[in-house]
Amino acid sequence: MQTFLSLCQARYSVRSFQDSTPSQEAIDYICECVRLAPSAVNFQPYKIRYVSDAEDLRKLQECYAREWFASAPACFIVYRNKSEEWVRKYDQKPHGDIDVAIAIEHLCLAAAEKGLGTCWVCNYNPTLLEENFPAPEHLEAVALIPIGYPSTKDIPEKKRKDMESILL
Ligand SMILES: Cc1cc2nc3c(=O)[nH]c(=O)nc-3n(C[C@H](O)[C@H](O)[C@H](O)COP(=O)(O)O)c2cc1C
After folding, report:
1. Mean pLDDT taken over the chain
2. pLDDT tens digits for 29-58?
3. May I ask the CATH architecture of the domain 4-150?
4. pLDDT of residue 2
5. Residue 64 CA: which ligand 1 atom is closest?
6. Which of 17, 47, 127, 132 could serve as 148's disulfide partner, Cβ 3.0–4.6 Å?
């Protein structure tokens, strides 16, 4: 059985994909893992859109014009629902971004378990994304998560701070 540590070691930002689209069974499994993610006050303030249609993928690529991104056979757009997120009353801090980040990491780790590669993408043009994929005002796109089978089996070396420098 795969341990959680081995899954964390195996997940990396995949930036080169095979042509084949993920199976529907894998996408359903991943979405169920997203659905089970914890969130502040259990408000679950997010929406996920799965894009695999060629024309929609082309419109997504306009928003993040990178050659590697164009190789992804599918992509999730993950939205924060501003009308449903918990806001801490003491300082008005909204927690939607935190909830979305947890949900996305469930997505990425579930995908890794299924042998699928993903990469967080936040450096897209948000104005263009809104133009190409109009969404209701209360939904803010937080990340694009391209998904597909990695084109290589090699897992790059993890570059991380050592334990001492992250422990306070
Ligand atoms: C919030 C967030 C935003 C990111 N945005 C981008 C991005 O726009 N483009 C990109 O190529 N990688 C992006 N990444 C991927 C990071 O560069 C990557 O996770 C980090 O370098 C660690 O590498 P690893 O994921 O392979 O372990 C993002 C990651 C996170 C968590």
Report:
1. 97
2. 999 999 999 999 999 999 999 999 999 999
3. 3-Layer(aba) Sandwich (3.40)
4. 83
5. 8
6. 17
Amino acid at 96: G
Distance 102 CA to ligand 1 centre (A): 15
Ligand 1 binding pocket includes 120 (Cβ within 6 Å): yes
Question: Residue 68 CA: which ligand 1 atom is closest?
Answer: 11
Predicted confidence at residue 5, as pLDDT, reads 96
Copy the structure tokens of residue 128.
């263009």
User: Rounded to whole angstroms, how far apart are CA atoms 15 and 25?
Assistant: 23
**What residue type is assigned to position 112 of the chain?**
A
**Per-position DSSP letters for the chain, written without gaps between them:** ---HHHHHHH--B---B-SSPPPHHHHHHHHHHHHT---GGG---EEEEEE--HHHHHHHHHHS--HHHHT-SEEEEEEEETTT--EETTTTEE-HHHHHHHHHHHHHHHHHHTT-EE--B--S-HHHHHHHS---TTEEEEEEEEEE-BS--PPPPP----HHHH--
pLDDT, tens digit, 9 for 90 and up, residues 52-105: 999 999 999 999 999 999 999 999 999 999 999 999 999 999 999 999 999 999
